[in-house]
Write a structure and sequence with these properties.
This is Methyltransferase domain-containing protein. With 266 residues, this protein is an alpha/beta fold. It has 10 helices and 9 strands. Strand 2, helix 4 and strand 3 form a beta-alpha-beta unit.
Length: 266
Amino acid sequence: MADILEYYRRGGEQTRLGAGAGLLEALRTRDILARYLPAPPASVLDVGGATGAYAGALATGGYRVHVVDPVPEHVERAGTVPGVTAEVGDARRLRQPDASVDAVLLLGPLYHLLERADRVTSWREAARVLRPGGVVFAATISRFASLHDGFVRGHYADPRFRPIVDRALDTGVHRNTEPGRGFFTDAYFHRPEEPVDEAREAGLAVDRVLAVEGSLWQLGDRLSELLADPDSTRLVLDQLRRVEAEPSLLGASSHLITVAHRHADR
């Protein structure tokens, strides 16, 4: 966890979603939330919500949003976002009471928990704090993301990169603890079916698994050009929405979002 905290304290999360593949991730995540969240003024617990990139937009839209994040610097910044409250916390040990919120966002925690037991515990905590019928949105990174990213960003020129990819492909574990590498941080990369199994083990009912960026994130610099034009952006979002649940394309996306709900009778 220390390596993960050090990575985020560099401040990259403040700008990551502003351009290129990060911007596409943000646009698509907001689109998915807009379609599947309960209507405002529902209460949303944004676990791993970082600096409030999604929380702020939700609060502006009339939601009651509280951010929980393990990085104090993130919490301090999120707490300044209008309409958003924030606290330091852990997805595996939430302080919120049972059945106290309408929706939980797990848009970061699951891929920073390398052990399956920890990920299932986070799913269970989300289920615990949800009201019956409440919904959870959980983001995961694709098992194959680093393989593709290596070509998009030219990482294979560094001989240290391929062993990282090989390990991730074999085990799902992405290890990157040596200071100075630009290859993300320690993480777990899911196959598309894995978050479904984890959510069900935690007692949740899974509604859908959706590709966030699809395969378009692999366009690199060309993607920034597309998203700079409003008409092209609308076309990208419309077309990705059409294939977001296509099983044969899920693994090509950099991120997936699994949408699940707490049973109404539990």
